[in-house]
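Run log, item B.
One chain of 328 residues. Sequence copied directly from the ordering sheet:
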Amino acid sequence: MFNAILIEKSQHGIFTRIVELDEAELPEGDVAVAVRFSSLNYKDALAITGKAPVVRKFPMVPGIDFAGVVESSSNPCWKAGDKVLLNGWGIGELHWGGLAQKARVKGEWLSSIPEAFSCQQAMAIGTAGYTAMLCVMALERHGIKPGDGEILVTGANGGVGSIAVALLSTLGYAVVASTGRPAESGHLKALGASKIIDREELFPSPGRALGKERWAGAIDSLGSHTLANVCASLNYRGVAVACGLAQGNDFPASVAPFILRGITLAGIDSVYTPGEERNKAWLRLAKDLDHEKLERIAQVIGMSEVKAKADELLSGWVRGRLVVDVNR
């Protein structure tokens, strides 16, 4: 038997609770994992609160990532005792996820935890940090270098934003952090931001079709009018990397910056990223992420705190990353 958070659906709606489950109830998979830590992401919060149709199969154990130790495996790539992590691949949506003490998954979904990280640190990074690394790699792939100009990070106090600020600053980029909580400026500067701007500079709608050139690149987790206004203010041949929709999934933009400044809008999907690229991202995180900054970003909570923290996360009151100790 093991403890898990379970989302169920009835004629009265969606409800979430902590339950005790039998291992026999775990879904099919060729690797069984004793989960040590998971995390609470924006998508998890939407699923747990029922505020968006994230879950596509009920009942569902939420949690789009986890880190733990292999208990048993019929997959030749893994053996008992291996330290593994999982990001995405539909867990917490179509397949039972990481907010539980046990998981059974396909071995092809798993990645090795780099030696530099413990299970707890791996989830302090989690899907948000892994996504941030994919965003940084996209900027690099499109030729954006530290000397090209400032890089804007929207939603900078969130999970993706916090780790993006830390990574970019370590790599030598000048980072402008956008936040709706100016009281957190000290925290963002400690992560490496050189400037802080109020999100209201980017939030208003509608923005201008073509604004003043301000940034060489941007990492955006908000979407909607913010992303449109970011694109309008990129430098010539600048690059915006989009990885979220916290403000909305619309994109009320103009083609003007694309055809007059030759900008690029690059999309990031962290869920089904091929194994080779995700492993490269985790190795880069082991090399480029400052461990002291990681300590500043994360806080650890227990399973009983997840539901309340999900509401706070959606309300924008959570700073950085929420690591879930599934045994607490």
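Observations after the first pass:
- The first strand starts at residue 2 and ends at 10.
- The chain has a mean pLDDT of 95.
Flagged for discussion on Thursday.
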